[in-house]
Amino acid sequence: MAGSAATSFGTSNQEILYDSIKDKQLHVDVVILQKGRTRPYIIEKELQRIQGAHTLDELKVRLLEAQEALEAMNIFEAVQITVDAGSPADSESCILRVHCPERRIWHAHAGTYLAETEAKFEGQFGLTNPLGYAEKIDITMERSTKNSTEYGLQFMRSRIFGSSLDSRASLAQHFLDRQQWSSYVENYRGTTIGLTSENGRHNIAYELAWRALSNPNRAASQSVRRQCGNHLKSALQYAYQWQRGDCDDPGDPYGGMSFRSTSEVAGLGVESSLLRFVRQHFQGAISLPTGGGTSLFLQASGGALVPWGHAWHKKQTCISDRYALFPSQF
């Protein structure tokens, strides 16, 4: 029996044959046909689950799991797994041949777009799996007609230390002009490190950043002026997300729904200039198909932002950490 992992357990006559042999014992030999940059153990780690398959039916389930895990790394153009009969002397054996053509090592993107009342230019350059450890490196730049600028460097690696976790580390610098909406300017430099579960549902991250708020046009309210100056942010964040179906595809005949919860505790440290607050945010969405390639999309969000520490009830939270209400949020 031969074919890709997604189709090998096929149609018509193959289905009848499969049903007749799916519960028989078998031995599995794996051959990895890989000559690219990717280290062999990266692929072998995901194929280990196949070794626990003792029947063809179990092999089918494990193959699909392995294929999805390899595709989720986003470093391969495709994941091709072929199932062939094993040695003629052993009727209970089969051979898996795995071939994963790699994505191009570099990619670049540039473009302009309109956001709110300003035009923006963005550029990106990235490397995909340059060293063969399932890593990705992205450099980004964005500049707007309102003099806002953003620069970022991000490093991501899948299956760190042989675990099922994906890791990332980033450096960011941005200068944001919020004078049109809130009469202040923000200068930010920071770093974030984080881990994401294999299925993407759980994410934990730590952020350490320096932030300076200023009031160059002298038009800010007294509340905003009191916040001007330098601040440090040391925060731990946890996010959980769940999705069923596809909320973003209006043509999906089944619709979908999603939920996301984000928790953050800032002020981890003894420095007096640290921002100290607890923030919780919930967001939910549902897509209901209405026929004709259209759907009804409903979304709701809410949360709370509360300062903590000594005399917390007399403190105010930083305006940059509040839930923004200008048009980009609608």
What does this structure look like?
This protein is mainly β. Helices cover 12% and strands 46% of the residues. The chain has four helices and 14 strands. The protein has helices at 12-21, 40-47, 56-72, 222-225, and strands at 27-32, 80-85, 93-99, 106-115, 118-128, 135-144, 149-157, 166-177, 185-196, 202-214, 229-245, 256-266, 277-291, 294-307. The strands form two sheets. An eleven-stranded antiparallel beta sheet has the order 4-5-6-7-8-9-10-11-12-13-14, with no helix packed on it. A hairpin with a 7-residue loop joins β8 (166-177) and β9 (185-196). It is elongated. Mean pLDDT is 83; it is low at 1-10 and 326-330.
Task: Supply the key terms.
4 helices; disordered N terminus
